[in-house]
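Deliverable D5.2: sample structural annotation.
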Amino acid sequence: MVSTMKKIGILTINSFNLGNRLQNYALQTMIEKMGYSAETILRTKPCGVIKSIKRNIRSKLIDDRFTRFYKFDKNIHWSKCIVSKDAVTDKLGEKYDGFVVGSDQVWNPTFSFNSELDYLPMIDSSKKFAYAASFGVSVIPKEYKHMVKNGLSTFDLISVREDAGVNIVKELTGRDATLVIDPTLMLTKEEWRRLSVVPSDLKRDSHYILTYFLGHEPQKATEEKSKLMRENGWMEYCLLDRANPKVCKAGPCEFLYLIDHAELVLTDSFHGSVFSFLFGKPFYVYAREGKENNMLSRIDTLMKMFSLERKFSGSGLHNDLLEHDYSVGYKALEQERKKAKNYLKSSMASMG
């Protein structure tokens, strides 16, 4: 018997990144809950990026972390076809009944691997839509505006995950994009806990502060964590510290556990903030240091949407680091989930 289930292709970033994998899984899960099948379209040959990195960085720590990513990747349904600068085919449209572009920074023009292909220009506008796509920047650099404008013009339905994205779409096309939540926020904490894995050699009764900084650790964060560690006898687990392999080799499943069981999370990461909120953990988020600091819009939007402004170090508001009453935010989350589900459902139905 031939299946009549419609098949959706997801185009997102395929990168060795914790938040990237988790949002990919979440979007796939939501699509499948609505009665469709879903595949993530590869931009390179399977594991190509990972193998390239491994050739240049030889260590057991890196190997262990890759192994955990490989294991998590079994949860993702990967395509057999590839979309790349060297392999664009008009037959792509024949393999799927429709396409979703997003989430994550799939439209960040400053990423070296991003191009006009991230808008699937070969696919008719009636067969694709964007879900929670992110530009990753607050303003599109002048040299990329033409490409981005042309790409956006090939879509009838566009949703983005931050206020800056709404403004960019309006500026370049004159159209109103829909603001929706990141896919990771669509799943409940119970659903995420089913994927959670205890990092090897980690004591289950550990009391720790989890630090997860993609940029430099701010001096204020260092001072605040040191004070709490002295007062409470807690230890620190730094997610990106190679001197601490227990946590540094964590994959997506271990990442979920580490946040869920922390006494406090200090971070400059969007998804670090998202999962702290979902798991009801005390957290504090800082502006990223040491890198181009033009990605704050996504955190600003998250904080405003769920009444968490006090949890941002740059807010100027009084905040108790260990306070974690998110009851107001959770009420808003229920409404945002309904809005996002309705957008997904109607967008997929519009593809016939």
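Annotation notes: The longest helix spans residues 327-349. Residues 46-50, 52-57 have pLDDT under 50 and may be disordered.
The annotation will be released with the project's public dataset once the embargo ends.
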